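I hope you will forgive my troubling you with a question about protein structure. The record follows directly beneath this note:
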Amino acid sequence: MIIGLIASVFGNYVVNAGFSAFAASGTIAVSALVALKTIEQIIVFTFPFYARIIGKISPDKALITVDLCEAAMSAVALAITFLQPQLAIGCLFAYVLIDALIAPVSDLADEFYGAAIANVDEKAALAFNATLYSWLAFIGFVIGGPLGSFFASVSIEALLLTNLVLSLCGAGLRLFARTTFAAEPILDVDDDEYAVTGSRLPVKEFFKDLFASGPASPLLSLMIRIASAMTGELFLLWVAGVSAERASHLGAFTGMGLVLAVFGVGAMLGPTAGRWLRRIGSAKTVLLASALVSGAILLLFGLFELTVGSSFILALGFVLAITILNRARMVVLETFRQAEFKGTRFVRIMSWSYSFGALGTILGLQIGYWLHLSTQPVACLFIGGILWVFIGVIVNLKVTAPVEA
C-alpha cells in the first residue's frame, strides 16, 4: 500500500513541479499560481466533511478510486492536448484544479492509517510517519521535482503521460496489497458526531478542541501554516528567480529544478530528524525548539538579504534548513495528535486542523502575494520569523480531556 502511495504521489509531484516551473519561467502568471493554491486550500477547509465520509469506508478502496480517477483525468487531458495544442496550458491548469477536489481523500486515508498504528504503539506510528514522509519526499521532490521541471521544458504531454502511467501503477499496487490486507473503516458513527453544534458536540466542546488541545490545536495549525507560507511556493519562486539574476548561467527551469531538489532533500531528512529529536525530548519540547529556531533563521536570513543580498547557494542552504525544521515538526505534531486523541475526538481535531491550516495557507498566500514575496521576500521573512517565535509560546497550552467519552 505504501509503495502504491509513493507511485501515485510521484506522478502528482511531477505535475505540480512542472506547473511551478512554468510559473517560474513566466509561462504561467504568478497570480494564477496564487489563485490555484488558494482554491486548493479552500477545498482543504472542507476536510471535516470529507472525514465524515472517508472515515466510514475502507481507506484502501478510497485510495484505489483516487488513483483511477487521476489516471482517467490524465488520459482526457492528454487527448485534448494532442488534439488542440493551444489548450495545453489550460488543460494542465484544469487537471491540477480538479485533482485538488479528490486530494483530501488520500490525505485523510493516510492519516487514518497512522492513527490505527498509534492506537497500538506510538513509537511504531512515529516510525511509520517518518518513513512514509521521508520516502515521499525523496521520490516526490528529489526525483519528481527536477523531473517535472525537465518535462515542463519539453512538453506538457510528457507531464500528463508520466502522471497517467504512475497513477495506474499506484492503483495496481494498491489492488495487490488489498489481496493480503484489506483495511477496515476507522469509524462507524452518526453524522451528528461531526456537527460543530448540536447534541453530540456542543459549542463548549468545539471551543475546547480549539483552545485546549495543546500542540494539536487547530488554531496552532492556522498560525503554523501562515508562518510556513512565508517560505512556501512564492518564496521558492523567488529563490528560482535568484538563479537567473545572480547566477546568470542558470535558467528559470534549471533554477526551479535545483530549488525543488534541495527542498526534497530537506523534506526527506526532516522526518528522520523529527523521529530522532522525539527520542531525546517530549513532543512539546521538540515543537518549541523547532519554532524558535525557525524564527531565528527567518529573521537572520531576512536581515542578511536586506543588508547584503544573498547568493543562490545561500538561498538554497536556507531552503534546506527551514524545510528540515518544517518536516521534522510535521511528523512530531502528527504523531502527537494520533497518539493523544482517540476515536471521534481525534477525527474532529485532525480534520479541523487541516481546515484551519488551509485558512492559514490562504492568508499566508495573500500576504505573500500583496507583499511581493516572489520578488522581494524581506518583509514576509520578518513576519514569518515573528510568527514562529509566537508559535513557540502557544505549544505549551495544556491538553484537556474531552467532556464526554
Notes: Residues 210 and 219 are 6 Å apart (CA to CA). The longest helix spans residues 122-154. The mean pLDDT is 80.
